[in-house]
What does this fold into?
Amino acid sequence: MASVNIRNVWKYYGDMPAVKNLNITCPDGSFVSILGPSGCGKSSTMRMIAGLEHISAGDIHFDDLRINDLAPKDRDVAMVFENYALYPHKSVYENIANPLRLRGATDATIRERVNGAAKLLEIAHLLERRPHELSGGQKQRVAIGRAIVREPKLFLFDEPIAHLDAKLRAHMRGEIKHLQRTLGTTMIYVTHDQLEALSMADYIAVMHDGELQQWGTPSEIFNNPVNAWVAGFVGEPAMNFLTCDIVAAGSDVSLRHANFDLPLLSSQITQLNGSSKGGAARMGVRPDALSISMEKPEDRAIRGQIFVNELLGGDMLVDVSLDDCRIRVKTTPDFAGKPGETCYVTVNRSKWHVFDAKDGHAYF
Amino acid sequence: MASRDVVTYETPLTKLIRVLSVVFLALYLVWTLLPFFIMFISSFKDLLAAFKLPAVGDWSDIGVFFDFTPTLKHYRSLFEDNAFGTYTMNSLIAAGGSAVISVIFGSLAAYSLSRVNFRGKSDLFFWIISTRMAPVVAVMVPLYSIFRSLDLVGTLPGLILAYTTFNLPFAIWILKGFFDNVPYAIEEAQMVDGATRFQAFRSILPLVAPGIGAFIVLCILFAWNDFLFAAIIGSGGAKTLPVATRELVQPQNIQWGAIMAAGVITTLPMMALGLVIRKYLVTGLTMGAVKE
It folds into this structure.
């Protein structure tokens, strides 16, 4: 086990920076997810930690050990690859045994460890098979088995369940989280799926365009995004964004839009820190912080037309057309509105966010 | 597997095509196999029996062809009067040696070309393969003078070097394609597992084994059947089977029986090699390694 310190790390491919001045500290024994869309630099970061890519600038430490110049084999990390990267000509047993063999373990130790890992992952009956005889989920377990058999300092998981079907993915999320808790080994888990990051990690590092956007616990990331990009990337269905004007009238401040004029709560006014009063801003609100009704419930409700209803089993998503834009509302399946009808949307103002119109940073 | 059931539906036309293709294949088989058959059977006949042929078009007399007392005297003369044991050995060493050397350097070079990016890589690759574009005859004279000044003419190392010169580009060309098809992630997994770079390279060799096997066969075939290099570079001390066979044709005496026997000796090892390695060549090892 080890903590991982990434200090001012840059990665260049030619002249193209893929990772820009990254600083992350993963506490010992924690489950850290690096989350971002493809091309955000998350895989490059992981590959620099594994030693598969050179670090262009900056340092990475495992505890107090600087690992920049160590070969992968000397870093004592175990990695699960997105495409599993099993050895096709070796049996499952030999695949899992490989890290131990390379480190010169005795046959007895190998047998004990491989059988232990296979039992933990419920693949003991597959040990004699070759990778091409396995299903996707089984291959993935073998790849994990190869990683855990050795008790490394650090696990690196590179989108390990991205290729599984949805049901198996949901199952494996729980399994991997449980495994990490059981072994207590620090884990860095790269994913583009915000649901995986939110549901599994102790800490999430959100990356975009090679830069760290936000570091925090899943609830911090979800509830207090630092900018509009993080707010829009995390959460499903995605957050609604509306361009508004901030209008100050005496001590009151409100958000004005073609369809509504809603006052900020008093605690939120102080967070606007003066300078931004009177400018353009982006209001962000998640679909579940909105409620919808067919009768006008109060003065502050926003009037719109139902565009389309999507029933998602236990929930219903309603797309509502305002004059020049559209917002998405999450409601219960018994909502009776039909497309084209007039409806009223109420905003839970304690859960909305206001972002700077230019650089997108969050006021609250 | 890439192959699958081909769905066909019978029509009179397809029936006709099928019959015609069977006829064609039968003729083709006769055309291909008959020379080998004649060579094989003639090597066991003495000279008189070998030239007893039925008249053209006289199928009733075909039995003449098989009417002979088998004799091993041609084979005996090859190994006792001529030094065919040595020539066979020379052929084996020249072909095997160049194959082994080419496969070692070829796989290292092909691996580098497949995995490492460096400036001028595509130029280098083209340059390597362009050495095969000139016909051997065109470079034979300069090659001979180089080999002679190095005292390599008429020696086995010289012959091995000559074959390697021509096999190595071919090895790099073939093997690079095979290495390209092996996902790099497999080596990365090896290195994270605790392998050195070289161990990682070695670990994927089983995955390119079909390529290496195919290359070895082609390389050995080229060297084994080669006449030009063997006659010029190898002449004297490193005589191989084709050159020795050619020398059985003397101005006053063409030793037909011995030539047939030498043909059999030259052909059989290559056929055996083909049979042994065939199974190996078709074994696809990379399947299911990586999620596609």
